């Protein structure tokens, strides 16, 4: 084989290796984004249930104007689903936070995806922590 043919084989092998590496990176990144979106969707659903709890009178099983006493088990039968594991953060009369820790590796390439939603009586704020 000539030098030119060997060079083409080496260049071709390097390019194929680079394309495979880029493809794997893109797949992993998309998988983490999908996990974040799924967690956000679950958290928004949970936040709406928490707001309903706050507005409902205590006589009807609600919080009577407070988030204190809200339980995630009223929304999720199991606090772990295909998307994440969910837990309550801070809970007070006027504001609460709900945390979802996903199954995919996050932005820092070391820890899992984490999304937090802050809930008030009339608004929510979704924050992607990782």
Task: Note down, in words, how this protein is organized.
The protein contains one helix and four strands. The chain is of the alpha+beta class and 130 residues long. It has one domain. It has a four-stranded antiparallel beta sheet with strand order 1-2-3-4, with helices on one face. It is rod-shaped and about 90 Å long.
Number of helices: 1
Strand content: 15-25%
- Main pleated sheet: 4 strands, antiparallel
What series of H and E elements makes up the topology?
A: HEEEE
Write down the overall geometry: rod-shaped
Rounded mean pLDDT score: 93
Helix content: 40-55%
What is the domain tally? 1
Pick out the low-confidence regions: none
Q: Strand order of the main beta sheet, please?
A: 1-2-3-4
The computed structural class is alpha+beta
